[in-house]
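tool_log.txt
---
The assistant was asked to compare two proteins side by side. It first ran the structure predictor on the initial sequence, then on the second. Raw inputs and outputs are pasted verbatim so the downstream comparison step can read them without reformatting.
(1)
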Amino acid sequence: MSAQKSAGIQLLLDAEREATKIVQKAREYRTKRVREARDEAKKEIEAYKAQKEAEFKKFEAEHTQGNQAAQEEANREAEARIREIKEAGNKNREQVIKDLLHAVFTPSPEAMAAH
C-alpha cells in the first residue's frame, strides 16, 4: 500500500507542478496582453491627438484668413475716411483761416461787454 500512496503522492506533486506551470503561463500571457493593450491605446491616443491638431490648424487657418480679410477691409475704409477728412479740410482751409483771423482781430461790442 505504501507504494500506491507514494505513487499517488508523486502523481499529486506532478499535477501541482503542471498546474503551477499553467498558472505561470497564464500570468505571463495576461501581462503580455496588458502591455500590448497599453501600447495599442497609446497609438490610438496619438492618432486621435494628431487628427484633432490637424482639424484645429485647419479651423484656425480658415478663420484667420477671414479675420485678415475683415481687418484689411476695415483698414481700407479707415484710410478712405481719413482722405475725405483731409480733402474737406484742405478745401475749406483758406476760408476757415480768414474767418478765425477776422474773429480774433475784429473787435465786437458783445465781446467787450463780457469783460
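(2)
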Amino acid sequence: MTDLRNDMDSDLDQNYSLNSNADPKNMQELTIYVQNLLQNVQDKFQTMSDQIITRIDDMGNRIDDLEKSIADLMNQAGVEGPEK
C-alpha cells in the first residue's frame, strides 16, 4: 500500500512540476505544485547567492592584486607609501 502511495506521489510530482501545463485539481496536487515552485525558487536563490559570493571574493582578490601592484610601482618610483 505504501509503494502504491509513493508511486502516486511520484506521478503527481511529475505531472505538476513547473514545466507542466496541467492545473492542480485538488489540495494534494496544489500542495505538490507549491512545494515544487518553492523548491525551484530556493534553488535559483541559492545559485544566485553562490554566484554573488564568488564575484565578491574575486573582486577582493583583484583589489588585493591592484594594491600590491600600486605598492610595487611606488617602490620602483622611489615614492614612499602613505603612513598608516
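---
observation on (2): The first helix runs from residue 2 to 15. The two ends are 74 Å apart (CA to CA).
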